[in-house]
Sequence to fold (115 residues):
Amino acid sequence: MTRVQKRVTAFISALSLCLMFVLVSSAVGYIDVFDESNILNVKITAQCFPGYVSQGEWGSTSGKTLSSCYVRLVQGSYDSGRVDSVKNGSFQTATTSRVNNPLNTAYTYWGWYYS
Fold:
């Protein structure tokens, strides 16, 4: 093998490794729900990475591609309604909160939109 052939082979190998890294890292996704309530406040946040193929976590449908998410907070006569996510960097984030009323139980809901 000549010197030029060795360099071309090394370049193609390095390029292939970089391409594999890009493809694998683009397949990695994220989906999560946070309940950040305390004695004073009730807060629910859902977050997802658009394009992520869900694995059935957090009530998502396994094998479907996520596009965005929503949350809802109900406490006593208060109902936030469905709060849709907004783009937050590369993520979609939905959040809602209110001052806690300890005389009523708070219920939080979340869900996912698919593409």
User: Anything to note?
Assistant: Residues 14-28 have pLDDT under 50 and may be disordered. The beta strands are 31-35, 41-48, 66-75, 78-79, 83-84, 86-88, 91-99, 106-114. The helical segments are 3-27.
